[in-house]
């Protein structure tokens, strides 16, 4: 029993270490949101009642959607959200939601991210594409996500507006990458709108939202997780010694 309880503790401590390691590894990743492991008592429920004390289990890996600090880049299509909401990006595999606003026009004028996913308008179903032929210059994006630029002939492009989305329960979103999430029934029905409308935050052009990882806090968590791992390993060792002592009794 002692060794099995210690084993659950080792597994929980290992999960804790994995979450912290993921956070630390992404301390410089644009738009990254830190995770936090939540643990609970492992109980045995049977006809005789509930008997606590069987160890620990990982209940959930919570996501911390606190806003990261804005960092200046000077690129007009680098966009940081100040407030609620996500940018909507899409590729053939589906739609994703992100706070990482590092965008640029591709050769055809589509506004894309570094993965080649196309940025969507407020409907979440239409790609943003600059009119005319590239290269495009003097790109300007206002706080409401309105984009204007000039094509290779000097003609102004057709105005575009960046779309945004939010959910009743963002904690219910499914992480599908370091900086992207997918809709789920737990998150609720998607709310599509534009920056500054429908409860969405405004955008800042020439800036990106930094990771919200607090490196000092994560290093402390790493020490705690390591201590937990060591303590549970000692529990297993103690249990093994007890069994060995009983075996050696004549």
Helix/strand layout:
Elements: H1 2-25, E1 35-41, E2 44-46, E3 49-51, E4 56-63, E5 70-72, E6 79-82, E7 86-91, E8 94-98, E9 104-105, E10 111-112, E11 118-119, E12 137-141, E13 146-150, E14 160-161, E15 164-166, E16 174-177, E17 180-182, E18 191-193, E19 202-205, E20 207-209, H2 215-248
Antiparallel strand pairs: 1-4, 2-3, 5-20, 6-19, 7-8, 7-11, 7-15, 8-17, 9-10, 12-13, 13-14, 15-18, 16-17
Helix pairs in contact: 1-2
Describe the structure.
Strands 7, 8, 11, 15, 16, 17 and 18 form a seven-stranded antiparallel sheet that branches. This protein has a three-stranded antiparallel sheet with strand order 12-13-14, with no helix packed on it. A two-stranded antiparallel sheet has the order 1-4. The longest helix is centred in the C-terminal third of the chain and has 34 residues, at 215-248. The two termini are 23 Å apart. With 250 residues, the protein is an alpha+beta fold. The chain has helices at residues 2-25, 215-248, and strands at 35-41, 44-46, 49-51, 56-63, 70-72, 79-82, 86-91, 94-98, 104-105, 111-112, 118-119, 137-141, 146-150, 160-161, 164-166, 174-177, 180-182, 191-193, 202-205, 207-209. The chain has two domains: 2-65 and 212-248, no CATH class; 70-209, no CATH class.
């Amino acid at each position: 029993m002692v060794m099995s309880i210690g084993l659950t503790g080792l597994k929980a401590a290992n999960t804790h270490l994995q979450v912290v390691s993921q956070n630390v590894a992404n301390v410089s990743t644009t738009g990254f949101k830190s995770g936090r492991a939540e643990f609970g008592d492992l109980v045995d429920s049977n006809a005789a009642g509930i008997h606590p004390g069987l160890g620990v289990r990982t209940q959930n890996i919570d996501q911390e959607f606190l806003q990261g600090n804005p960092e200046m880049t000077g690129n007009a299509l680098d966009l940081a959200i100040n407030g609620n909401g996500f940018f909507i990006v899409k590729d053939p595999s589906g739609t994703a939601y992100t706070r990482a606003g590092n965008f640029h026009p591709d050769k055809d004028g589509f506004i894309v991210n570094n993965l080649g996913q196309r940025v969507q308008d407020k409907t979440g179903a239409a790609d943003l594409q600059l009119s005319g032929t590239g290269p495009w210059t003097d790109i300007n994006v206002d706080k409401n996500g309105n984009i204007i630029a000039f094509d290779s002939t000097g003609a102004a492009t057709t105005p575009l507006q960046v779309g945004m989305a939010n959910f009743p329960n963002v904690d219910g979103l499914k992480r599908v990458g370091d900086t992207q999430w997918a809709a789920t029934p737990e998150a609720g029905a998607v709310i599509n709108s534009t920056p500054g409308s429908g409860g969405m935050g405004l955008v800042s052009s020439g800036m990106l939202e930094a990771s919200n990882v607090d490196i000092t806090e994560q290093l402390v968590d790493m020490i705690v997780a390591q201590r937990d791992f060591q303590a549970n390993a000692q529990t297993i060792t103690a249990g093994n010694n007890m069994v060995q002592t009983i075996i050696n009794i004549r």
